[in-house]
Design brief:
Helices cover 9% and strands 72% of the residues. By secondary structure, it is mainly beta. The chain has an eight-stranded antiparallel barrel with strand order 1-2-3-4-5-6-7-8. Belongs to the opacity porin family.
Length: 180
Protein backbone atom coordinates (compact mmCIF):
# COMPACT_ATOMS: atom_id res chain seq x y z
CA UNK A 1 0.00 0.00 0.00
CA UNK A 2 2.83 2.43 0.87
CA UNK A 3 4.57 1.68 -2.44
CA UNK A 4 1.37 2.34 -4.38
CA UNK A 5 0.91 5.67 -2.55
CA UNK A 6 4.55 6.62 -3.25
CA UNK A 7 4.13 5.80 -6.96
CA UNK A 8 0.89 7.83 -7.12
CA UNK A 9 2.51 10.86 -5.46
CA UNK A 10 5.53 10.58 -7.77
CA UNK A 11 3.32 10.40 -10.86
CA UNK A 12 1.34 13.43 -9.68
CA UNK A 13 4.56 15.40 -9.10
CA UNK A 14 5.90 14.48 -12.55
CA UNK A 15 2.64 15.45 -14.26
CA UNK A 16 2.54 18.78 -12.40
CA UNK A 17 6.09 19.70 -13.39
CA UNK A 18 5.43 18.72 -17.00
CA UNK A 19 3.35 21.91 -17.27
CA UNK A 20 5.67 24.08 -15.14
CA UNK A 21 7.32 27.16 -16.63
CA UNK A 22 9.51 29.97 -15.37
CA UNK A 23 8.53 33.39 -16.69
CA UNK A 24 9.56 37.01 -16.56
CA UNK A 25 7.16 39.93 -16.94
CA UNK A 26 7.63 43.66 -17.35
CA UNK A 27 4.73 46.03 -16.71
CA UNK A 28 4.05 49.73 -16.94
CA UNK A 29 1.37 50.78 -14.50
CA UNK A 30 -0.65 53.99 -14.30
CA UNK A 31 -1.54 54.16 -10.64
CA UNK A 32 -2.88 56.45 -7.97
CA UNK A 33 -1.02 56.75 -4.68
CA UNK A 34 -3.38 57.75 -1.87
CA UNK A 35 -2.06 58.92 1.51
CA UNK A 36 -4.79 59.54 4.09
CA UNK A 37 -2.73 62.11 6.03
CA UNK A 38 -0.34 63.70 3.52
CA UNK A 39 -2.72 64.71 0.72
CA UNK A 40 0.07 66.61 -1.07
CA UNK A 41 1.52 63.17 -1.92
CA UNK A 42 -1.67 61.91 -3.60
CA UNK A 43 -0.57 61.68 -7.21
CA UNK A 44 -1.19 59.72 -10.37
CA UNK A 45 2.07 58.06 -11.37
CA UNK A 46 3.41 55.85 -14.12
CA UNK A 47 5.47 53.17 -12.40
CA UNK A 48 7.44 50.20 -13.76
CA UNK A 49 7.31 46.69 -12.33
CA UNK A 50 9.49 43.66 -12.96
CA UNK A 51 8.18 40.21 -12.09
CA UNK A 52 9.76 36.76 -12.04
CA UNK A 53 7.43 33.82 -11.61
CA UNK A 54 6.82 30.13 -11.85
CA UNK A 55 3.74 28.61 -13.48
CA UNK A 56 2.30 25.19 -12.65
CA UNK A 57 -0.80 24.29 -14.65
CA UNK A 58 -3.21 27.21 -14.14
CA UNK A 59 -1.46 28.65 -11.05
CA UNK A 60 1.32 31.24 -11.05
CA UNK A 61 3.52 32.30 -8.13
CA UNK A 62 5.38 35.54 -8.71
CA UNK A 63 7.92 37.79 -7.01
CA UNK A 64 7.84 41.44 -8.08
CA UNK A 65 9.46 44.77 -7.35
CA UNK A 66 7.72 48.11 -6.89
CA UNK A 67 9.07 51.66 -6.78
CA UNK A 68 7.29 55.00 -6.63
CA UNK A 69 8.42 58.52 -5.87
CA UNK A 70 6.06 61.41 -5.15
CA UNK A 71 6.27 64.91 -3.73
CA UNK A 72 4.19 68.02 -3.22
CA UNK A 73 3.90 71.37 -1.52
CA UNK A 74 1.75 71.49 1.59
CA UNK A 75 1.99 75.28 1.73
CA UNK A 76 4.55 77.94 0.79
CA UNK A 77 6.94 76.89 3.57
CA UNK A 78 6.54 73.13 3.47
CA UNK A 79 7.53 70.55 0.88
CA UNK A 80 7.01 66.84 1.48
CA UNK A 81 8.35 63.90 -0.52
CA UNK A 82 8.17 60.13 -0.32
CA UNK A 83 9.97 57.22 -1.91
CA UNK A 84 8.40 53.78 -1.70
CA UNK A 85 10.30 50.58 -2.44
CA UNK A 86 8.49 47.25 -2.37
CA UNK A 87 8.99 43.54 -2.84
CA UNK A 88 5.86 41.47 -3.42
CA UNK A 89 4.77 37.85 -3.58
CA UNK A 90 1.62 37.02 -5.57
CA UNK A 91 -0.46 33.91 -6.15
CA UNK A 92 -2.43 34.10 -9.41
CA UNK A 93 -5.00 31.74 -10.92
CA UNK A 94 -5.45 31.73 -14.71
CA UNK A 95 -8.91 30.69 -15.89
CA UNK A 96 -8.02 28.48 -18.83
CA UNK A 97 -10.82 28.12 -21.40
CA UNK A 98 -8.43 26.75 -24.07
CA UNK A 99 -8.48 30.12 -25.80
CA UNK A 100 -5.62 32.58 -26.40
CA UNK A 101 -7.33 35.01 -23.98
CA UNK A 102 -7.26 34.05 -20.27
CA UNK A 103 -8.76 36.02 -17.39
CA UNK A 104 -6.98 35.80 -14.03
CA UNK A 105 -7.43 36.68 -10.36
CA UNK A 106 -4.74 36.95 -7.71
CA UNK A 107 -3.70 38.04 -4.25
CA UNK A 108 -0.47 39.80 -3.28
CA UNK A 109 1.56 40.25 -0.09
CA UNK A 110 4.37 42.78 0.05
CA UNK A 111 7.11 44.29 2.16
CA UNK A 112 7.35 48.05 1.56
CA UNK A 113 9.85 50.67 2.70
CA UNK A 114 8.64 54.28 2.97
CA UNK A 115 11.15 57.13 3.08
CA UNK A 116 9.23 60.35 3.88
CA UNK A 117 10.94 63.75 4.11
CA UNK A 118 9.50 67.11 5.18
CA UNK A 119 11.28 70.46 4.73
CA UNK A 120 9.27 72.43 7.30
CA UNK A 121 11.21 72.87 10.53
CA UNK A 122 9.63 71.11 13.52
CA UNK A 123 6.87 69.52 11.40
CA UNK A 124 8.17 66.00 11.94
CA UNK A 125 11.46 64.30 11.64
CA UNK A 126 12.13 62.48 8.41
CA UNK A 127 10.52 59.08 8.65
CA UNK A 128 11.56 55.72 7.35
CA UNK A 129 9.06 52.89 7.81
CA UNK A 130 9.03 49.24 6.74
CA UNK A 131 5.51 47.85 6.52
CA UNK A 132 3.70 44.76 5.29
CA UNK A 133 1.06 45.24 2.61
CA UNK A 134 -1.60 43.22 0.85
CA UNK A 135 -3.54 43.49 -2.37
CA UNK A 136 -5.67 41.96 -5.08
CA UNK A 137 -5.31 41.85 -8.84
CA UNK A 138 -7.46 40.89 -11.80
CA UNK A 139 -6.89 41.00 -15.51
CA UNK A 140 -6.68 39.33 -18.87
CA UNK A 141 -3.68 37.89 -20.66
CA UNK A 142 -3.62 37.29 -24.39
CA UNK A 143 -1.20 34.81 -25.96
CA UNK A 144 0.72 36.51 -28.77
CA UNK A 145 2.97 33.49 -29.40
CA UNK A 146 3.56 30.21 -27.61
CA UNK A 147 5.95 31.92 -25.16
CA UNK A 148 4.84 35.57 -25.21
CA UNK A 149 1.65 37.04 -23.72
CA UNK A 150 0.23 40.55 -23.49
CA UNK A 151 -1.06 41.22 -19.99
CA UNK A 152 -3.53 43.91 -18.92
CA UNK A 153 -5.05 44.24 -15.51
CA UNK A 154 -6.24 46.17 -12.49
CA UNK A 155 -4.51 46.11 -9.12
CA UNK A 156 -5.23 47.39 -5.61
CA UNK A 157 -2.60 47.38 -2.85
CA UNK A 158 -2.65 48.54 0.76
CA UNK A 159 1.04 49.39 0.90
CA UNK A 160 1.05 50.01 4.63
CA UNK A 161 0.03 52.31 7.45
CA UNK A 162 1.61 54.00 10.43
CA UNK A 163 0.32 56.42 13.06
CA UNK A 164 -2.52 58.29 11.33
CA UNK A 165 -1.53 57.52 7.74
CA UNK A 166 -2.71 54.75 5.43
CA UNK A 167 -1.15 54.35 1.98
CA UNK A 168 -3.11 52.75 -0.86
CA UNK A 169 -2.12 52.22 -4.47
CA UNK A 170 -4.47 51.25 -7.26
CA UNK A 171 -4.23 51.36 -11.00
CA UNK A 172 -4.22 49.71 -14.38
CA UNK A 173 -1.23 47.99 -15.94
CA UNK A 174 -0.09 46.64 -19.27
CA UNK A 175 2.93 44.44 -19.88
CA UNK A 176 4.55 41.53 -21.63
CA UNK A 177 5.17 38.10 -20.08
CA UNK A 178 7.73 35.71 -21.55
CA UNK A 179 7.62 32.03 -20.55
CA UNK A 180 10.84 30.05 -20.88
Amino acid sequence: MKKLLAVAIGALAISATANANWYVQGDVQHSKLKFTEYSALNKNKVTPRLTVGYKVNDWRVAVDTFYAKTSGNVDTNEHISAKIYGLGLAAIYDFNFNLPVKPYLGARLSLNVFDVENTQPNAFEDKKHTKFGYGALAGISCDLTQNLALDTGFEYNRLGNWEDTKVNQYGVKVGLRYEF
